[in-house]
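Preliminary data (for renewal application), iron/sulfur cluster complex.
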Amino acid sequence: METPLHAYSVNPVCCNGCGACASMLPELFAMDEVAEKPVVLLAEAPAADIERAMAFCPHDCIEMD
Ligand code: SF4
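Predicted structure:
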């Protein structure tokens, strides 16, 4: 069975740039050191990976479409 893929994004207003998402899931996120916000690296990712990132975010800023 294929793993369902979903688009995902970061709400930049609530994100405080802690970097947890990029540390825990570097295949999905990288930190923009100038903006001090994460950027998404993929158009879509497995739902389970996005849900892991959502669980690590202390401010619930990661959204899955
Ligand atoms: S874990 Fe959440 S608050 Fe921290 S950088 Fe990532 S999106 Fe922003």
